[in-house]
Amino acid sequence: MDLQTLTYLFVGGTFAVYIGIAIWARAGSTKDFYVAGGGVHPVANGMATAADWMSAASFISMAGLIAFMGYGGSVFLMGWTGGFVLLAMLLAPYLRKYGKFTVPEFIGDRYYSKAARAVAVVCLIICSVTYVIGQMKGIGVAFSRFLEVEYDTGLLIGMCIVFFYSVLGGMKGITYTQIAQFCVLILAYTIPAIFISLNLTGNPLPQLGLGSTMTGSETYLLDRLDQVVTELGFDQYTTSVRLSGLNMFAYTMSLMIGTAGLPHVIIRFFTVPTVRDARRSAGWALVFISILYTTAPAVAAMARLNLINTIEPVAGEHLVYEERPQWFKNWETTGLLKFEDKNGDGRIQYSADKSVNEMVKIDNDIMVLANPEIAKLPNWVIALVAAGGLAAALSTAAGLLLAIASAISHDLIKGMIKPDISEKQELRASRIAMAAAIAGAGYLGFNPPDFAAGTVALAFGLAASSIFPALMMGIFSKRVNREGAIAGMIAGIGITLFYVFQHKGIMFIASTAFLGDMSPNWFLGIEPNAFGVVGAIVNFAVAMLVSRVTAEPPVEVQELVEHIRIPAGVTAAHDH
Amino acid sequence: MSQMTEEQAKEYWRRNLSLMFKLLVIWFAVSFGCGIIFVDALNQIQIGGYKLGFWFAQQGAIYSFVALTFYYARKMAQLDREFNVDED
Question: Considering the entire predicted model, what is its pTM?
């Protein structure tokens, strides 16, 4: 069967499964809609959390980034997994014990303040919306490349699918679809990796293949890779640091804290029955995530090696442009891969030296998608990768949209504007909020703002500098009060925004970047993407200081803190 | 729901914090320690095709995170039973 038919078959088949699940798992109450009834098994929740967390960025972009950053790319691997350790120990069990529906709700109750809840809603919406734009773009790109439809058509199909199962099923529908999506995405990621690892090293496990010798040779794969990249003038793969050790430290820490503070991940832990399940579920989530995250470095290194081997099979013998493989042509038409024959010899020179290099553009994002083609794998594997990329983008988009919708219907409408609405009205409100969120995200997907790419830093920076510290202090300190928490959140977000904007431009309009995006102007050489940790430290410091000079929290609040620290007496997610 | 005295609640929380602290020290050591701060020193050691520092940064830290989370969940379940605050 040809690739096109296979792709339609795989993508169509998986979509049919998602829709089937949606019809089966309809939400009947607000509790179903917000927390899937609070009865999800911890292993199932772990799987859903993994799909929720692993987005188009993890699936499509990460290995490509690592392929070109080498050791420096480790910040993503450690940062995006290590955050779950923080989540499992510092937040998830206590927030589950508290037993309500949303993150701002906890902040509002713990800091006995509607203002604190409102600040949390704003942070939540900003980080989730910036994230959703990226997913929407991923859906559009994947469709347009693999189904050969227009970007807009692809995006519209994706929106309809998400609309169907998330408006109908809420968290309940999303949870069970995410389990299916996890299975699709993890197969789609690991199967090509196994093939490629077998090809290159004879070891079927990519995690071991990366540390093995090349087939038919005594040379280790990583040594060979180090050798070929340095011959081309690049930094050694296994030791190339990202800017500086301190910057890597800050970057990793920011991603970890940001991960633990992202609301769409946190709310997943409200769906399990008990505190003990919340702890175990975090472990399972990490297991499922680790399958992809330990495979990614192998995919990265092998893709880089395969790419170089294609262009320059033997040192000094460059590929003739007219004889380039089909995948090379396909990606050239997308504009994500560009060749320019600078010396006019009709052959492709790839080098770190910009004046000689003729591969003028290799977009990081094509590496994972092109990888099976570069390695000459069968068509069904390529079709599976397309379905996997879509599963990753759809599952994360749905989780984010639910976080946005529940913040609107539960925190804004029920919590602040109209507290006396009935459960039926609230359920209807949350469905309308969900539909509005999808339409809004779709609009941004059709007209992606220029700043979309730069805003990932902002999403993590916001989660790290506002939500995480507020939650952690709310659990671990009885002394931090309303004034402290609000001042801390505002100071934390403020300084992070200020730093990102002064280097990247106000609202990412480049000309307003009054300090310029260059390393000599960076604070201690820390790049804006890695600044969340500094914002978090400021948040902690300001909150402690302000709390010390203002009145203690009321007795009921101190009792609430003691109550959430002990698991016994946990009730099913609180009924309103 | 079982009732805890104030002392018991304090002791439960103290034991939780001390377990958490130990595990977070390991969490820091395997990622920031072995993967970033001491990466050059560890890279002098080679295991198979992996330089050890590089292995920690791209593989070892992640495996350790999984082990840490499960160990914490198990130890806390034991602690819950000991203080009679487990949920069944």
Answer: 0.93
